[in-house]
Amino acid sequence: MKQVLICCLASLILYNCAGETIEHRVDKIFSEFNNKTPGAAVAVYKDSVIVFAKGYGLADLEQGPKINSATNFRLASVTKQFTAASILLLIDDGKLSLGSKLVEVIPGFPDYAKDITIKHLLQHTSGLLDYEDYIDDTVTTQLLDSDVLTILLGQDSLYFAPGSAYKYSNSGYAVLSLIVERLSGQRFPDFLEDRIFKPLGMNNSVAYIKNYNVIPNRSFGYVKENGEFNFSDQSLTSAVLGDGGIYTSVEDMQKWDESLSNATLLNGETLQESWTKGKTTGGEIFDYGYGWRLTEYNGYRLDYHTGGTCGFSNVYMRFPEAGISVLVLINIRNYPALDMGKKVSDVFLAKK
């Protein structure tokens, strides 16, 4: 039986053998952030209960609010697990299946897409071209998921035959959000609100559309250039929702973590398939499920996803054998969130 060292509990103050508090050990990982810099929100969940949560730095350099456990960050590609969950909910509703063809749900795709299935889109084996490589140089307004579809409809080929290879695809997840809209009759943010956020009590989470909804307790994004932090909150692709448009906090993500641990939103069989490595038609195994990267770390199974975009760098890590989850949300572009998350996990997991 694997032994897990739980280094921080809500009701106890624990120390390592050197007499150093857990909080101090985590503080050192994020010591570069202060009341003059952007920063991070960090949480550790044990059996989906928050056992450590703390903010470092500022959510907004101009206005000055400090980051705390309720501060909302743009999740970037951590969003993909919510997009995948939305599709799986529709499958549970009987509105489609993993084997449903893309062209059956969104008619009008060129012939190249005739063999693409929902499962291909979920696991990045569709071969769809990366829409970001085909944005016209004259475009100055933010793209929406529907604009991604327009770009794809204008193409005449794939990277490879569907199912034959794995290639990470933001295009596929933008298309999945449009499938959710077509089959549910709701805008993607409203579907998320009605089927995921509200049932789980994630009351401050939102898939953000300018002038349509608002982000409570919002953090803004920055980039570090020549030793200074410059505002860098939005890009041309920041309004595409299916691949990265959700804002949430470490408090709300505890409720998501709990739903995954207890299978309260999706059934256990569906979740296990979500965390099962994919296989190409040629038999090659790859480390991706349905919105999850699947690997190991220090001898523990690790299900995780990173998220990097204009102004934000994040990682959400789950160690199911240990019952430990780690979340690091940073409002700075191109920051080593995964490395920081691993360092936090080292504090809370026993070495094997």
List keywords for this structure.
single chain, 352 residues, alpha+beta, Beta-lactamase, 3-stranded antiparallel beta sheet, 13 strands, disordered N terminus
Please characterize this protein's 3D structure.
By secondary structure, this protein is an alpha+beta fold. It has a domain at 72-288 and 303-321: Beta-lactamase, CATH 3.40.710.10. The protein is built from ten helices and 13 strands. It has helices spanning 22-29, 80-92, 102-105, 118-122, 145-153, 170-184, 188-200, 250-262, 268-274, 337-348, and strands at residues 40-46, 49-56, 73-74, 206-207, 222-225, 228-231, 246-248, 278-279, 285-286, 293-297, 300-309, 312-319, 324-330. Strands 2-1-13-12-11-10 form a six-stranded antiparallel sheet, sandwiched between helices. A three-stranded antiparallel sheet has the order 3-7-4. It has a two-stranded antiparallel sheet with strand order 5-6. A hairpin with a 2-residue loop joins strand 5 (222-225) and strand 6. Helix 1 (22-29) packs antiparallel against helix 10. The longest helix is centred in the middle third of the chain and has 15 residues, at 170-184. The model is unreliable at 1-17 (pLDDT under 50).
User: Structural class per helix/strand content?
Assistant: alpha+beta
- Which oligomeric state applies? single chain
Physical arrangement of strands within the biggest beta sheet: 2-1-13-12-11-10
Q: Which sheet architecture does the biggest sheet show?
A: 6 strands, antiparallel
Would you tell me which CATH topology of the domain at 72-288 and 303-321 applies?
Beta-lactamase
**Unreliable parts:** 1-17
Overall 3D geometry? globular
What is the name of the CATH architecture of the domain at 72-288 and 303-321?
Answer: 3-Layer(aba) Sandwich
Give the SSE string: HEEEHHHHHHEEEEHHEEEEEEH
